[in-house]
Amino acid sequence: MSILTKETARSLAKVINNSLSTYYSDDLVAILGTGRETSNEQALQSWLLSRFASIEVGRKDILVEYSSQVLMQHLNDLRLEVAIGGKPELPIQQSFIPPKALTNRDLRCIARAIYLLILNEGSKPYLDALIELVQEGDGNPIEKITAWASSQTQIYTYFPSELTVPLAQRFMRKLKQASEYY
Asked: pLDDT tens, 109-127?
């Protein structure tokens, strides 16, 4: 038996990524990774290494099945957290850590993650129409969520992904208010 290595995590990430159904090649980056990865596969690798760093690697088929189950449970927990809401507070900026500016890429990544997290709340056409109602302007739903996220914050402390769940909760609240009104 051996401990999970980067190479094994990369292989696991590739297998798991191929079994997932997502809309974009980087919509898991701002959920599972730090927000600096360039693909779902890299975000999965980061997540696997952080979650299973000291797991003993025996039979890889069992590890793939187990890590896939844990991943799906984690994503479902996040979706539930976003759907329920709570108080969606953005992380407090620490005075001893200089803030970092969000890039357009960071904002698009966060927007795709928000879209993935709220997608369970209805069909894709319904969600797209609801986003069209609540968010004025040109563009597709991701561009509209990106513009909205940009209006909410421009900085982060540690990683861009720290903003994903609070922003998703805020956006979900906005969508729920609109759906109740219409």
From this structure: 999 999 999 987 678 898 9
Q: Other C-beta atoms within 10 Å of 19: how many?
A: 10
12 within 8 A of 92, measured Cβ to Cβ: no
**10-residue stretch averages of pLDDT, the chain, 182 residues long:** 78 90 86 86 92 72 85 92 77 77 92 91 86 90 95 88 91 88 69
Entry pTM: 0.84
* Claim to verify: residue 57 and residue 25 sit in the same structural domain: yes
Domain housing 173: 100-181
pLDDT in tens, 60-94: 678 888 889 999 999 999 999 898 876 667 767 67
95 within domain boundaries: no
Shared domain check, 108 and 156: yes
Q: Report yes or no on 109 lying in a domain.
A: yes
Domain count, the chain: 2
Alpha-carbon distance of 111 to 46, in angstroms, equals 20
